[in-house]
Amino acid sequence: MRQLRGQERVITANRQTSWAFADAFVAEDEAMLWARDRAQETGLRPVSPGTGAALRLLAATTDAKAVAEIGTGTGVSGLYLLYGMRPDGVLTTVDPEPERQQFAREAFRAAGFAANRARFIPGRALDVLPRLADGGYDLVFCDGDRLESLDYLAESLRLLRPGGLVCFEGVFADGRTVDAAAQPTEVLRLRELLRAVRESQELMGTLLPVGNGLLCAVRRG
Ligand SMILES: C[S@@+](CC[C@H](N)C(=O)[O-])C[C@H]1O[C@@H](n2cnc3c(N)ncnc32)[C@H](O)[C@@H]1O
Fold first, then answer.
1. pTM over 0.90
2. Separation of CA 73 and ligand 1 centre (Å)
3. Which of 89, 88, 94 is nearest to 73 (CA)?
4. Helix 49-61 × helix 76-84 angle, to 10°
5. Distance 23 CA to ligand 1 centre (A)
6. pLDDT in tens, 26-64
7. Contact, 25 vs 9, CB < 8 A?
8. pLDDT at res. 221
9. Which of 83, 95, 126 for mutating ligand 1's site (highest number of atoms within 8 Å of CB)?
10. Who contacts 38 (Cβ-Cβ below 8 Å, separation ≥6)?
11. Fewer Cβ atoms within 10 Å of its own Cβ: the N or the C terminal residue of the chain?
């Protein structure tokens, strides 16, 4: 009851707008908060609650049975994806840092997911993705190395079934993507990614203004 009243206050007593409201609107469970704490200790930036909830919604909408994630971190985004996927779905998640994946494994277990719901692959995305099956995935979520964004897009097009969805986290780059001042290479790569998705004949994309910007695109059938 107390939690419900708290949630109601988030709606009717909220003085924030747009992004901040969308993030505050989402209730996170203990496992999620634990994974967030581990991310903070590790110096990682996990998806915001609003971004996580959007991913959960998209996984549910696509009735996702097979999801590939680049950048496990400590498991915040993975939890959201698992909550949205089918009960028999499997999340394949890639990260070069096994100790981060160990935190994610613990968070998934704490949330009640059976061990066979997640396949943890330690390694760099561009070494691992070529080993994954063509057309075998309903959704690919990219949150690894921004410098490799265009490579992730190419790999995602190969991995996705027709009608499948690719999502890129962090494309606002905290406002730097639209800032005409000199920007680091990773921001230039994000701009190239945005252009590539917008111009692609194979994809239908949109930019969701949640968190730090979530670029989503469906692979046309
Ligand atoms: C922002 S964190 C991911 C956060 C996570 N998606 C979440 O929301 O909880 C980025 C992660 O990408 C991983 N990473 C860095 N380079 C990578 C690469 N080449 N391939 C796969 N993962 C990579 C890092 O080790 C880090 O854990």
1. yes
2. 5
3. 94
4. 30
5. 21
6. 999 999 999 999 999 999 999 999 999 999 999 999 999
7. no
8. 82
9. 95
10. 74, 75, 103, 107
11. N
The alpha carbon of 29 and the centre of ligand 1 are apart by a number of angstroms equal to 22
Model pLDDT, residue 24: 87
- Residue 100 Cα: closest atom of ligand 1: 27
Q: Which residues contact 7 (CB under 8 A, 6 or more apart)?
A: 27
Dig out the tokens for 14 from the structure: 């909220």
Give the ligand 1 atom nearest the CA of 75: 9
Question: Which residue ranges have their beta carbon within 6 Å of ligand 1?
Answer: 39, 44-47, 70-71, 73-77, 94-97, 100, 124-125, 143-145, 148
Q: What angle do CA 145, 151, 153 make, to 5 degrees?
A: 100
pLDDT in tens, 97-148: 999 999 999 999 999 999 999 999 999 999 999 999 999 999 999 999 999 9
